[in-house]
Amino acid sequence: MSIIVPGRRPAFAPLGRLRASSLSSGKKSGFVSLNLTPMVDMFTILVVFLIQLFKASGEVELSSRITVPRTLASQPLEGETGTVVQVSQEILLLDSQPFSAEEMGSELDVPIPGMVTRLTAIREQNEKIFGRDPTKPYDGILIIQADIKTDFRTVRRIIASANGAGWAKMKFVTQPAAKPKAEGAE
After folding, report:
1. What's the alpha-carbon Rg for the chain, to the nearest Å?
2. What are phi and psi of 161, to 5 degrees?
3. pTM of this prediction?
4. From the CB of residue 158, how many other CB atoms can be counted at a distance below 10 Å?
5. C-beta atoms surrounding 155 within 10 Å
6. Scanning 3, 115, 117, 154, which has the fewest C-beta atoms within 10 Å of its C-beta?
7. Which residues contact 111 (CB under 8 A, 6 or more apart)?
8. Exposure letters 24-39 (e unless 16+ CB within 10 A, then b)
9. Regions of the chain short of the pLDDT cut 50
């Protein structure tokens, strides 16, 4: 049996090969691996949040089931945000939520009972979040998208419901009409 001179021995074989490597010579590597899955998840959530934020920043989407009237006195709703009511002959939606038959009440009820309840809840929630000066009326805006064929009695019921819930500002969504050409103008 041969005699072995005691010396430095690595704990396991790869460690000895790393120390003996001419490229690293036992130093730590500057390369750091990055786990991309959590980062992609975070950016996906961020993008969805930003899309929702910008979608709610004053753009009013028209329903394909509603044909709004045309008018010469229209003004753009740019930068306006508010609660949206969509009404046509077959639908009545408040912030995309339909009303049940019990909430609609009878035709004799001028304000719609369910709409008064929902608008009051929205107003109270906004007052809790943003605060309100009790000496001034509520300044929320109700944006009404009414179909051109909708009976005015239904629109009148919506207006009465909004007034009963404490909403004073209402705007109607319209499309600009083509201005008539003056005679003699080319």
Report:
1. 33
2. -65, -45
3. 0.59
4. 22
5. 16
6. 3
7. 157, 160, 161, 163, 164
8. eeeeeeeeeeeeeeee
9. 56-57
* Residue of 55, 69, 73 lying closest to 145 (CA atoms): 69
Q: What is the DSSP letter of 45?
A: H
H helix runs in the chain, sequence order: 13-20, 36-55, 101-104, 113-130, 152-164
At 75, which amino acid appears?
A: Q
Instruction: Find all residues with CB under 8 Å of 156, minimum gap 6, and list them.
Output: 110
Q: Which amino acid is at 105?
A: G
Q: Which of 82, 81, 103 is nearest to 92 (CA)?
A: 103
The CA distance from 6 to 86, in Å, is 89
Distance (Å) of CA 183 to CA 20, 72, 98: 96, 18, 48
Amino acid at 5: V
* Residue 157 phi, psi (nearest 5): -65, -40
Compute CA distances 95 → 19, 35, 60, 139, 173, whole Å. 68, 41, 11, 18, 15
Give tens-digit pLDDT for 7-54. 776 565 555 555 555 555 555 666 667 788 888 999 999 999 888 776
What is the DSSP code (8-state) at residue 26?
Answer: T
